[in-house]
Amino acid sequence: MRPSASQSWPLEAPDWILNGPEWLNDLGYDFYKSFVFDNRYQMYIKGLGNTLLLTLLALLIGVALGVVISLIRVSWDKNHTEMQGPGKFFLGFFNALAKVYLTVIRGTPAVVQLMIMYFVIFASSRNKVMVAALSFGINSGAYVAEIIRGGIMSIDTGQMEAGRSLGFGYVATMRYIILPQAFKAVLPTLANEFIVLLKETAVAGYVGLTDVTYAGNIIGGNCYDYLFPLLMSALIYLILVMFFTFLVGKLERRLRSSER
Amino acid sequence: MSADIIQAMDLQKHFDGGDIKALNGVNASVKKGEVVVVIGPSGSGKSTFLRCLNLLEVPTGGKVLFEGVDITDKKADINLHRQKMGMVFQHFNLFPHMTILRNMTLAPMKLLKKSQADAEAKAKALLERVGLSDRANAYPSQLSGGQKQRIAIVRALCMDPEVMLFDEPTSALDPEMVGEVLEVMKELAKEGMTMVVVTHEMGFAREMADRVIFMAEGKIVEEGTPEEIFMAPKQPRTRDFLAKVL
Ligand SMILES: Nc1ncnc2c1ncn2[C@@H]1O[C@H](COP(=O)(O)OP(=O)(O)O)[C@@H](O)[C@H]1O
Ligand SMILES: [Mg+2]
Hints:
The structure holds two protein chains of two kinds.
Chain A: H1 3-7, H2 15-18, H3 25-36, H4 41-79, H5 85-107, H6 110-121, H7 128-154, H8 157-166, H9 170-200, H10 212-223, H11 227-258
Helix pairs in contact in A: 4-5, 4-7, 4-9, 4-10, 5-7, 6-7, 7-9, 8-9, 9-11, 10-11
Chain B: E1 4-15, E2 20-31, E3 35-39, H1 46-53, E4 61-66, E5 69-70, H2 78-82, E6 85-88, H3 100-111, H4 116-129, H5 145-157, E7 163-167, H6 175-190, E8 194-198, H7 202-208, E9 211-216, E10 219-224, H8 226-231, H9 236-245
Parallel strand pairs in B: 3-8, 3-9, 6-7, 7-8
Antiparallel strand pairs in B: 1-2, 1-4, 4-5, 9-10
Helix pairs in contact in B: 3-4, 3-5, 5-6
The structure holds adenosine-5'-diphosphate and magnesium ion (MG).
Protein backbone atom coordinates (compact mmCIF):
# COMPACT_ATOMS: atom_id res chain seq x y z
CA MET A 1 0.00 0.00 0.00
CA ARG A 2 1.19 3.46 -0.89
CA PRO A 3 -0.33 5.82 1.61
CA SER A 4 0.27 8.90 -0.51
CA ALA A 5 -1.90 7.53 -3.22
CA SER A 6 -4.60 6.01 -1.05
CA GLN A 7 -5.21 9.34 0.69
CA SER A 8 -6.40 10.88 -2.55
CA TRP A 9 -8.47 7.82 -3.46
CA PRO A 10 -11.88 8.26 -1.91
CA LEU A 11 -13.17 5.16 -3.71
CA GLU A 12 -12.18 1.61 -2.99
CA ALA A 13 -9.66 0.85 -5.74
CA PRO A 14 -9.83 -2.66 -7.20
CA ASP A 15 -6.94 -5.09 -6.97
CA TRP A 16 -5.94 -4.85 -10.65
CA ILE A 17 -4.98 -1.24 -10.04
CA LEU A 18 -3.25 -1.82 -6.68
CA ASN A 19 -1.28 -4.74 -8.06
CA GLY A 20 -0.22 -2.98 -11.25
CA PRO A 21 3.06 -1.16 -11.77
CA GLU A 22 3.52 1.78 -9.43
CA TRP A 23 3.71 4.49 -12.11
CA LEU A 24 0.34 3.39 -13.43
CA ASN A 25 -1.47 3.57 -10.10
CA ASP A 26 -2.78 7.15 -10.25
CA LEU A 27 -3.57 6.94 -13.96
CA GLY A 28 -5.28 3.60 -13.48
CA TYR A 29 -7.35 4.98 -10.63
CA ASP A 30 -8.43 8.00 -12.68
CA PHE A 31 -9.39 5.69 -15.49
CA TYR A 32 -11.26 3.44 -13.08
CA LYS A 33 -13.38 6.19 -11.57
CA SER A 34 -14.03 7.88 -14.92
CA PHE A 35 -15.14 4.83 -16.84
CA VAL A 36 -15.49 1.67 -14.81
CA PHE A 37 -16.87 2.55 -11.40
CA ASP A 38 -20.65 2.49 -11.27
CA ASN A 39 -20.68 1.42 -14.96
CA ARG A 40 -19.96 5.00 -15.94
CA TYR A 41 -18.87 3.98 -19.44
CA GLN A 42 -22.52 3.30 -20.18
CA MET A 43 -23.21 7.00 -19.92
CA TYR A 44 -20.81 7.77 -22.78
CA ILE A 45 -22.48 5.13 -24.88
CA LYS A 46 -25.86 6.63 -24.12
CA GLY A 47 -24.44 10.06 -24.91
CA LEU A 48 -23.00 8.83 -28.19
CA GLY A 49 -26.34 7.33 -29.18
CA ASN A 50 -28.18 10.53 -28.32
CA THR A 51 -25.68 12.74 -30.16
CA LEU A 52 -25.93 10.64 -33.32
CA LEU A 53 -29.72 10.36 -33.17
CA LEU A 54 -30.09 14.05 -32.48
CA THR A 55 -27.77 15.03 -35.34
CA LEU A 56 -29.44 12.69 -37.82
CA LEU A 57 -32.99 13.79 -36.95
CA ALA A 58 -31.95 17.44 -37.00
CA LEU A 59 -30.37 17.03 -40.43
CA LEU A 60 -33.49 15.31 -41.81
CA ILE A 61 -35.70 18.10 -40.48
CA GLY A 62 -33.17 20.66 -41.69
CA VAL A 63 -33.08 19.26 -45.22
CA ALA A 64 -36.88 19.01 -45.47
CA LEU A 65 -37.24 22.58 -44.24
CA GLY A 66 -34.31 23.78 -46.34
CA VAL A 67 -35.80 22.39 -49.56
CA VAL A 68 -39.13 24.08 -48.92
CA ILE A 69 -37.59 27.42 -47.93
CA SER A 70 -35.12 27.47 -50.82
CA LEU A 71 -37.87 26.63 -53.32
CA ILE A 72 -40.06 29.44 -52.03
CA ARG A 73 -37.17 31.88 -52.27
CA VAL A 74 -36.00 30.78 -55.72
CA SER A 75 -39.54 30.64 -57.17
CA TRP A 76 -40.30 34.09 -55.87
CA ASP A 77 -37.09 35.63 -57.17
CA LYS A 78 -37.55 34.00 -60.56
CA ASN A 79 -41.27 34.45 -61.15
CA HIS A 80 -42.73 37.30 -59.11
CA THR A 81 -42.40 39.93 -61.84
CA GLU A 82 -44.55 37.86 -64.17
CA MET A 83 -47.02 36.56 -61.60
CA GLN A 84 -50.33 38.07 -60.60
CA GLY A 85 -53.47 37.40 -58.57
CA PRO A 86 -53.74 35.12 -55.54
CA GLY A 87 -50.75 32.98 -56.60
CA LYS A 88 -48.48 35.99 -56.34
CA PHE A 89 -50.03 36.96 -53.00
CA PHE A 90 -49.45 33.51 -51.46
CA LEU A 91 -45.94 33.11 -52.80
CA GLY A 92 -45.11 36.64 -51.65
CA PHE A 93 -46.51 35.88 -48.20
CA PHE A 94 -44.48 32.68 -47.85
CA ASN A 95 -41.41 34.41 -49.22
CA ALA A 96 -41.68 37.12 -46.58
CA LEU A 97 -42.18 34.42 -43.94
CA ALA A 98 -39.09 32.59 -45.21
CA LYS A 99 -37.03 35.76 -44.97
CA VAL A 100 -38.14 36.37 -41.38
CA TYR A 101 -37.27 32.77 -40.53
CA LEU A 102 -33.81 33.03 -42.10
CA THR A 103 -33.09 36.33 -40.35
CA VAL A 104 -34.25 35.24 -36.90
CA ILE A 105 -32.66 31.78 -36.98
CA ARG A 106 -29.32 32.95 -38.30
CA GLY A 107 -29.34 36.01 -36.06
CA THR A 108 -29.69 34.21 -32.72
CA PRO A 109 -27.56 31.54 -31.01
CA ALA A 110 -28.67 27.93 -31.46
CA VAL A 111 -28.43 27.34 -27.72
CA VAL A 112 -30.90 30.17 -26.98
CA GLN A 113 -33.26 28.74 -29.61
CA LEU A 114 -32.93 25.35 -27.93
CA MET A 115 -33.73 26.73 -24.48
CA ILE A 116 -36.72 28.69 -25.75
CA MET A 117 -37.93 25.56 -27.49
CA TYR A 118 -37.54 23.32 -24.44
CA PHE A 119 -38.39 25.60 -21.53
CA VAL A 120 -41.03 27.78 -23.21
CA ILE A 121 -42.63 26.35 -26.35
CA PHE A 122 -42.54 22.68 -25.40
CA ALA A 123 -42.39 23.26 -21.64
CA SER A 124 -44.81 20.39 -21.08
CA SER A 125 -42.87 17.87 -23.16
CA ARG A 126 -40.25 15.69 -21.50
CA ASN A 127 -39.05 14.16 -24.76
CA LYS A 128 -35.72 15.91 -24.79
CA VAL A 129 -34.36 14.25 -27.92
CA MET A 130 -37.39 15.13 -30.03
CA VAL A 131 -37.56 18.71 -28.83
CA ALA A 132 -33.83 19.20 -29.30
CA ALA A 133 -33.92 17.55 -32.74
CA LEU A 134 -36.72 19.89 -33.77
CA SER A 135 -34.82 22.90 -32.47
CA PHE A 136 -31.54 21.98 -34.14
CA GLY A 137 -33.45 20.97 -37.30
CA ILE A 138 -35.16 24.35 -37.50
CA ASN A 139 -31.77 25.96 -36.95
CA SER A 140 -30.04 23.82 -39.55
CA GLY A 141 -32.86 24.38 -42.07
CA ALA A 142 -31.85 28.02 -42.38
CA TYR A 143 -28.35 27.05 -43.43
CA VAL A 144 -29.43 24.12 -45.58
CA ALA A 145 -31.89 26.44 -47.39
CA GLU A 146 -29.05 28.69 -48.47
CA ILE A 147 -26.92 25.70 -49.48
CA ILE A 148 -29.71 24.31 -51.67
CA ARG A 149 -30.53 27.75 -53.06
CA GLY A 150 -26.91 28.04 -54.13
CA GLY A 151 -27.15 24.60 -55.73
CA ILE A 152 -30.29 25.50 -57.67
CA MET A 153 -28.75 28.75 -58.88
CA SER A 154 -25.61 26.93 -60.00
CA ILE A 155 -27.63 24.95 -62.58
CA ASP A 156 -27.42 26.39 -66.09
CA THR A 157 -30.54 28.40 -67.06
CA GLY A 158 -30.67 26.34 -70.28
CA GLN A 159 -31.90 23.39 -68.20
CA MET A 160 -35.01 25.26 -67.08
CA GLU A 161 -35.58 26.48 -70.64
CA ALA A 162 -35.22 22.98 -72.07
CA GLY A 163 -37.72 21.63 -69.54
CA ARG A 164 -40.20 24.43 -70.15
CA SER A 165 -39.85 24.14 -73.94
CA LEU A 166 -40.88 20.48 -73.76
CA GLY A 167 -44.06 21.55 -71.99
CA PHE A 168 -43.15 20.99 -68.33
CA GLY A 169 -44.44 23.61 -65.92
CA TYR A 170 -42.14 25.45 -63.56
CA VAL A 171 -42.75 23.07 -60.65
CA ALA A 172 -42.35 19.91 -62.75
CA THR A 173 -39.15 21.21 -64.30
CA MET A 174 -37.82 21.93 -60.82
CA ARG A 175 -38.76 18.47 -59.65
CA TYR A 176 -37.51 16.35 -62.54
CA ILE A 177 -34.67 18.42 -63.94
CA ILE A 178 -33.30 21.16 -61.66
CA LEU A 179 -33.53 19.73 -58.15
CA PRO A 180 -31.88 16.36 -58.88
CA GLN A 181 -28.90 18.18 -60.37
CA ALA A 182 -28.83 20.78 -57.60
CA PHE A 183 -28.88 18.05 -54.95
CA LYS A 184 -26.03 16.23 -56.56
CA ALA A 185 -24.06 19.47 -56.69
CA VAL A 186 -24.53 20.21 -52.99
CA LEU A 187 -24.40 16.68 -51.59
CA PRO A 188 -20.84 17.06 -50.22
CA THR A 189 -21.78 20.41 -48.67
CA LEU A 190 -24.85 18.83 -47.09
CA ALA A 191 -22.72 16.02 -45.73
CA ASN A 192 -20.43 18.64 -44.23
CA GLU A 193 -23.47 20.26 -42.65
CA PHE A 194 -23.99 16.93 -40.85
CA ILE A 195 -20.48 17.19 -39.41
CA VAL A 196 -21.02 20.80 -38.36
CA LEU A 197 -24.32 19.83 -36.79
CA LEU A 198 -22.66 16.97 -34.92
CA LYS A 199 -20.52 19.45 -33.02
CA GLU A 200 -23.25 22.06 -32.69
CA THR A 201 -25.50 19.65 -30.81
CA ALA A 202 -22.92 19.73 -27.98
CA VAL A 203 -25.02 22.37 -26.24
CA ALA A 204 -27.89 19.89 -25.77
CA GLY A 205 -26.80 19.57 -22.12
CA TYR A 206 -28.38 22.97 -21.49
CA VAL A 207 -31.74 21.23 -21.44
CA GLY A 208 -30.36 18.22 -19.58
CA LEU A 209 -30.09 15.94 -22.59
CA THR A 210 -27.36 13.36 -22.05
CA ASP A 211 -25.25 13.73 -25.19
CA VAL A 212 -21.51 13.11 -25.49
CA THR A 213 -20.62 16.46 -23.92
CA TYR A 214 -23.11 16.27 -21.08
CA ALA A 215 -21.99 12.72 -20.24
CA GLY A 216 -18.44 13.94 -19.75
CA ASN A 217 -19.68 16.91 -17.79
CA ILE A 218 -21.77 14.84 -15.36
CA ILE A 219 -19.11 12.19 -14.79
CA GLY A 220 -16.47 14.87 -14.29
CA GLY A 221 -18.68 16.41 -11.63
CA ASN A 222 -19.27 13.05 -9.98
CA CYS A 223 -15.55 12.27 -9.73
CA TYR A 224 -14.50 15.80 -8.84
CA ASP A 225 -12.06 15.50 -11.73
CA TYR A 226 -12.89 16.62 -15.27
CA LEU A 227 -9.70 15.69 -17.08
CA PHE A 228 -10.47 12.13 -18.22
CA PRO A 229 -14.23 12.54 -18.74
CA LEU A 230 -13.90 15.67 -20.90
CA LEU A 231 -10.96 14.23 -22.83
CA MET A 232 -13.16 11.21 -23.49
CA SER A 233 -15.96 13.42 -24.82
CA ALA A 234 -13.51 15.27 -27.04
CA LEU A 235 -12.04 12.01 -28.30
CA ILE A 236 -15.48 10.66 -29.25
CA TYR A 237 -16.26 13.79 -31.28
CA LEU A 238 -12.86 13.69 -32.91
CA ILE A 239 -13.25 10.08 -34.00
CA LEU A 240 -16.77 10.73 -35.32
CA VAL A 241 -15.71 13.84 -37.22
CA MET A 242 -12.68 12.12 -38.72
CA PHE A 243 -14.80 9.14 -39.73
CA PHE A 244 -17.52 11.24 -41.37
CA THR A 245 -14.96 13.50 -43.03
CA PHE A 246 -13.44 10.39 -44.55
CA LEU A 247 -16.88 9.33 -45.84
CA VAL A 248 -17.55 12.78 -47.31
CA GLY A 249 -14.20 12.64 -49.10
CA LYS A 250 -15.14 9.27 -50.57
CA LEU A 251 -18.52 10.64 -51.63
CA GLU A 252 -16.90 13.64 -53.32
CA ARG A 253 -14.52 11.43 -55.27
CA ARG A 254 -17.38 9.16 -56.30
CA LEU A 255 -19.46 12.13 -57.49
CA ARG A 256 -16.57 13.65 -59.36
CA SER A 257 -15.80 10.42 -61.20
CA SER A 258 -19.48 10.03 -62.14
CA GLU A 259 -19.44 13.44 -63.80
CA ARG A 260 -17.59 11.85 -66.69
CA MET B 1 -58.83 31.30 -91.53
CA SER B 2 -55.42 31.01 -93.05
CA ALA B 3 -53.17 27.99 -93.02
CA ASP B 4 -50.78 29.94 -90.80
CA ILE B 5 -49.65 27.79 -87.91
CA ILE B 6 -47.81 30.65 -86.24
CA GLN B 7 -48.63 34.32 -86.51
CA ALA B 8 -46.58 36.99 -84.77
CA MET B 9 -48.37 40.30 -84.63
CA ASP B 10 -46.47 43.50 -83.85
CA LEU B 11 -44.15 41.73 -81.42
CA GLN B 12 -42.28 43.98 -79.02
CA LYS B 13 -39.70 42.89 -76.51
CA HIS B 14 -38.00 45.47 -74.35
CA PHE B 15 -35.38 44.57 -71.77
CA ASP B 16 -34.21 46.56 -68.76
CA GLY B 17 -37.29 48.74 -68.54
CA GLY B 18 -37.30 49.74 -72.20
CA ASP B 19 -33.63 50.62 -72.53
CA ILE B 20 -33.01 47.70 -74.88
CA LYS B 21 -35.51 47.20 -77.67
CA ALA B 22 -34.71 43.66 -78.76
CA LEU B 23 -37.87 43.43 -80.88
CA ASN B 24 -39.51 46.49 -82.30
CA GLY B 25 -42.72 45.55 -84.04
CA VAL B 26 -42.19 42.21 -85.74
CA ASN B 27 -44.94 40.79 -87.94
CA ALA B 28 -44.38 37.32 -89.32
CA SER B 29 -46.27 34.17 -90.10
CA VAL B 30 -45.36 30.58 -90.68
CA LYS B 31 -47.48 28.24 -92.75
CA LYS B 32 -47.89 24.56 -92.05
CA GLY B 33 -45.03 22.60 -93.59
CA GLU B 34 -43.03 25.71 -94.28
CA VAL B 35 -39.31 26.07 -93.53
CA VAL B 36 -38.54 29.63 -92.50
CA VAL B 37 -34.92 30.61 -91.99
CA VAL B 38 -34.10 33.72 -89.98
CA ILE B 39 -30.79 35.44 -90.66
CA GLY B 40 -29.24 38.69 -89.50
CA PRO B 41 -26.32 40.17 -87.62
CA SER B 42 -25.61 39.28 -84.02
CA GLY B 43 -27.82 41.18 -81.59
CA SER B 44 -30.50 41.83 -84.20
CA GLY B 45 -33.15 40.03 -82.16
CA LYS B 46 -33.28 36.67 -83.93
CA SER B 47 -33.14 34.62 -80.73
CA THR B 48 -35.56 36.91 -78.96
CA PHE B 49 -38.01 36.57 -81.86
CA LEU B 50 -37.74 32.77 -81.84
CA ARG B 51 -38.05 32.57 -78.06
CA CYS B 52 -41.13 34.79 -78.14
CA LEU B 53 -42.85 32.26 -80.41
CA ASN B 54 -43.02 29.71 -77.57
CA LEU B 55 -43.03 32.37 -74.87
CA LEU B 56 -39.66 31.49 -73.38
CA GLU B 57 -39.45 35.27 -73.60
CA VAL B 58 -42.72 36.95 -72.79
CA PRO B 59 -43.24 39.74 -75.31
CA THR B 60 -43.78 43.18 -73.83
CA GLY B 61 -46.19 43.95 -76.64
CA GLY B 62 -48.03 42.30 -79.53
CA LYS B 63 -49.46 38.82 -79.87
CA VAL B 64 -48.45 35.33 -80.89
CA LEU B 65 -51.11 33.11 -82.42
CA PHE B 66 -50.37 29.40 -82.51
CA GLU B 67 -52.86 27.30 -84.46
CA GLY B 68 -55.15 30.31 -84.33
CA VAL B 69 -55.03 30.61 -80.52
CA ASP B 70 -53.57 33.69 -78.85
CA ILE B 71 -50.96 32.07 -76.60
CA THR B 72 -49.89 35.42 -75.17
CA ASP B 73 -53.33 35.62 -73.58
CA LYS B 74 -53.07 35.15 -69.80
CA LYS B 75 -55.75 32.48 -69.92
CA ALA B 76 -53.91 30.32 -72.45
CA ASP B 77 -52.22 27.21 -71.02
CA ILE B 78 -48.76 27.79 -72.41
CA ASN B 79 -47.47 24.40 -71.20
CA LEU B 80 -49.97 22.63 -73.44
CA HIS B 81 -49.04 24.72 -76.48
CA ARG B 82 -45.32 24.24 -75.87
CA GLN B 83 -45.78 20.47 -76.08
CA LYS B 84 -46.48 21.03 -79.78
CA MET B 85 -43.55 23.40 -80.33
CA GLY B 86 -40.25 21.61 -80.15
CA MET B 87 -37.19 23.73 -79.50
CA VAL B 88 -33.51 23.09 -80.18
CA PHE B 89 -30.93 25.30 -78.49
CA GLN B 90 -27.45 26.38 -79.44
CA HIS B 91 -26.02 24.65 -76.37
CA PHE B 92 -28.12 21.46 -76.64
CA ASN B 93 -29.41 21.61 -73.04
CA LEU B 94 -29.62 17.86 -72.64
CA PHE B 95 -30.33 16.74 -69.09
CA PRO B 96 -26.90 15.62 -67.84
CA HIS B 97 -28.22 13.47 -64.98
CA MET B 98 -30.26 11.22 -67.27
CA THR B 99 -29.40 8.70 -69.94
CA ILE B 100 -30.13 9.57 -73.55
CA LEU B 101 -33.16 7.29 -73.49
CA ARG B 102 -34.48 8.95 -70.33
CA ASN B 103 -33.87 12.38 -71.84
CA MET B 104 -36.16 11.33 -74.64
CA THR B 105 -38.88 9.51 -72.70
CA LEU B 106 -39.29 11.86 -69.72
CA ALA B 107 -41.64 14.37 -71.35
CA PRO B 108 -43.75 11.86 -73.33
CA MET B 109 -44.26 9.77 -70.19
CA LYS B 110 -44.96 12.61 -67.76
CA LEU B 111 -46.84 14.96 -70.09
CA LEU B 112 -48.46 12.74 -72.72
CA LYS B 113 -48.93 9.92 -70.18
CA LYS B 114 -47.37 7.42 -72.56
CA SER B 115 -46.38 4.04 -71.15
CA GLN B 116 -42.68 3.42 -70.75
CA ALA B 117 -42.81 0.80 -73.48
CA ASP B 118 -44.48 3.15 -75.95
CA ALA B 119 -42.19 6.06 -75.12
CA GLU B 120 -39.09 3.89 -75.43
CA ALA B 121 -40.22 2.34 -78.69
CA LYS B 122 -40.67 5.78 -80.20
CA ALA B 123 -37.37 7.03 -78.78
CA LYS B 124 -35.49 4.01 -80.11
CA ALA B 125 -37.01 4.40 -83.56
CA LEU B 126 -35.88 8.02 -83.63
CA LEU B 127 -32.41 7.10 -82.36
CA GLU B 128 -32.20 4.59 -85.17
CA ARG B 129 -33.04 7.28 -87.69
CA VAL B 130 -30.24 9.56 -86.52
CA GLY B 131 -27.80 6.66 -86.25
CA LEU B 132 -27.39 6.78 -82.49
CA SER B 133 -29.12 3.58 -81.37
CA ASP B 134 -26.00 2.40 -79.60
CA ARG B 135 -25.96 5.47 -77.35
CA ALA B 136 -29.38 4.96 -75.76
CA ASN B 137 -27.92 4.18 -72.35
CA ALA B 138 -25.05 6.65 -72.48
CA TYR B 139 -25.06 9.94 -70.59
CA PRO B 140 -24.90 13.27 -72.45
CA SER B 141 -21.34 13.96 -71.27
CA GLN B 142 -20.20 10.84 -73.11
CA LEU B 143 -21.35 12.26 -76.47
CA SER B 144 -19.71 14.58 -78.97
CA GLY B 145 -21.30 17.95 -79.70
CA GLY B 146 -22.80 16.76 -82.96
CA GLN B 147 -24.27 13.71 -81.25
CA LYS B 148 -25.68 15.85 -78.45
CA GLN B 149 -27.42 18.13 -80.90
CA ARG B 150 -28.88 15.21 -82.85
CA ILE B 151 -30.20 13.85 -79.56
CA ALA B 152 -31.64 17.28 -78.68
CA ILE B 153 -33.52 17.24 -81.98
CA VAL B 154 -34.98 13.77 -81.51
CA ARG B 155 -35.78 14.53 -77.87
CA ALA B 156 -38.02 17.33 -79.12
CA LEU B 157 -39.46 15.06 -81.83
CA CYS B 158 -40.53 12.52 -79.19
CA MET B 159 -43.34 14.93 -78.32
CA ASP B 160 -44.68 14.82 -81.90
CA PRO B 161 -44.52 18.61 -82.27
CA GLU B 162 -46.35 20.56 -84.96
CA VAL B 163 -43.46 23.02 -85.26
CA MET B 164 -39.74 22.86 -84.57
CA LEU B 165 -37.84 25.98 -83.52
CA PHE B 166 -34.05 26.00 -83.94
CA ASP B 167 -31.82 28.67 -82.40
CA GLU B 168 -28.42 28.48 -84.07
CA PRO B 169 -28.28 24.69 -83.72
CA THR B 170 -24.82 24.39 -85.25
CA SER B 171 -23.09 27.49 -83.84
CA ALA B 172 -21.58 25.70 -80.84
CA LEU B 173 -20.27 22.79 -82.89
CA ASP B 174 -16.82 22.01 -84.18
CA PRO B 175 -16.87 22.49 -87.98
CA GLU B 176 -16.62 18.77 -88.73
CA MET B 177 -19.84 18.12 -86.81
CA VAL B 178 -22.00 20.76 -88.46
CA GLY B 179 -22.82 18.51 -91.41
CA GLU B 180 -24.31 15.65 -89.42
CA VAL B 181 -26.72 18.00 -87.64
CA LEU B 182 -27.74 19.84 -90.81
CA GLU B 183 -28.36 16.46 -92.41
CA VAL B 184 -30.91 15.57 -89.73
CA MET B 185 -32.58 18.95 -90.15
CA LYS B 186 -32.76 18.54 -93.91
CA GLU B 187 -34.42 15.16 -93.57
CA LEU B 188 -36.90 16.64 -91.17
CA ALA B 189 -37.68 19.44 -93.62
CA LYS B 190 -38.17 16.98 -96.46
CA GLU B 191 -40.66 15.03 -94.35
CA GLY B 192 -42.75 18.18 -94.19
CA MET B 193 -41.99 19.38 -90.67
CA THR B 194 -42.80 23.04 -90.08
CA MET B 195 -39.54 24.67 -89.05
CA VAL B 196 -38.31 28.08 -87.96
CA VAL B 197 -34.52 28.11 -88.04
CA VAL B 198 -32.19 30.84 -86.85
CA THR B 199 -28.83 30.09 -88.41
CA HIS B 200 -25.68 31.42 -89.98
CA GLU B 201 -25.52 28.44 -92.33
CA MET B 202 -26.36 30.20 -95.58
CA GLY B 203 -26.01 26.95 -97.51
CA PHE B 204 -28.82 25.43 -95.49
CA ALA B 205 -30.94 28.54 -95.99
CA ARG B 206 -30.48 28.45 -99.75
CA GLU B 207 -31.13 24.80 -100.08
CA MET B 208 -33.94 24.20 -97.62
CA ALA B 209 -35.74 27.48 -96.90
CA ASP B 210 -39.14 28.19 -98.36
CA ARG B 211 -38.73 31.70 -97.05
CA VAL B 212 -35.83 33.68 -95.63
CA ILE B 213 -36.32 36.49 -93.11
CA PHE B 214 -33.58 39.05 -92.67
CA MET B 215 -33.64 40.88 -89.33
CA ALA B 216 -31.72 43.90 -88.11
CA GLU B 217 -32.14 46.04 -85.01
CA GLY B 218 -35.23 44.24 -83.79
CA LYS B 219 -37.12 44.47 -87.06
CA ILE B 220 -37.72 42.41 -90.15
CA VAL B 221 -35.90 44.30 -92.87
CA GLU B 222 -36.68 42.01 -95.76
CA GLU B 223 -38.19 38.63 -96.43
CA GLY B 224 -38.61 36.46 -99.47
CA THR B 225 -37.62 33.25 -101.17
CA PRO B 226 -33.95 32.26 -100.94
CA GLU B 227 -33.56 33.38 -104.58
CA GLU B 228 -35.00 36.80 -103.82
CA ILE B 229 -32.91 37.34 -100.70
CA PHE B 230 -29.62 35.86 -101.85
CA MET B 231 -29.68 36.78 -105.56
CA ALA B 232 -31.54 40.05 -105.56
CA PRO B 233 -31.72 41.64 -102.11
CA LYS B 234 -33.66 44.90 -102.24
CA GLN B 235 -32.54 46.54 -99.02
CA PRO B 236 -29.03 48.01 -98.65
CA ARG B 237 -28.75 46.50 -95.17
CA THR B 238 -29.50 43.04 -96.49
CA ARG B 239 -26.87 43.51 -99.17
CA ASP B 240 -24.30 44.71 -96.62
CA PHE B 241 -24.96 41.73 -94.40
CA LEU B 242 -24.80 39.20 -97.22
CA ALA B 243 -21.62 40.76 -98.56
CA LYS B 244 -20.03 40.08 -95.18
CA VAL B 245 -21.20 36.51 -94.67
CA LEU B 246 -21.13 35.05 -98.16
N1 LIG C 1 -32.23 38.66 -71.17
C1 LIG C 1 -31.80 39.80 -71.74
N2 LIG C 1 -31.61 40.92 -71.01
C2 LIG C 1 -31.19 42.07 -71.58
N3 LIG C 1 -30.95 42.20 -72.89
C3 LIG C 1 -31.13 41.13 -73.68
C4 LIG C 1 -31.55 39.87 -73.16
N4 LIG C 1 -31.65 38.99 -74.18
C5 LIG C 1 -31.28 39.67 -75.29
N5 LIG C 1 -30.99 40.94 -75.00
C6 LIG C 1 -30.58 41.99 -75.96
O1 LIG C 1 -31.52 42.02 -77.00
C7 LIG C 1 -30.88 42.21 -78.25
C8 LIG C 1 -31.23 41.07 -79.18
O2 LIG C 1 -30.64 39.89 -78.70
P1 LIG C 1 -30.81 38.47 -79.42
O3 LIG C 1 -32.24 38.24 -79.68
O4 LIG C 1 -30.11 37.47 -78.58
O5 LIG C 1 -30.03 38.69 -80.77
P2 LIG C 1 -29.49 37.62 -81.80
O6 LIG C 1 -30.02 36.28 -81.44
O7 LIG C 1 -29.94 38.10 -83.13
O8 LIG C 1 -27.99 37.68 -81.71
C9 LIG C 1 -29.39 42.32 -77.96
O9 LIG C 1 -29.05 43.67 -77.89
C10 LIG C 1 -29.25 41.67 -76.62
O10 LIG C 1 -28.18 42.21 -75.92
MG1 LIG D 1 -29.01 34.49 -80.88
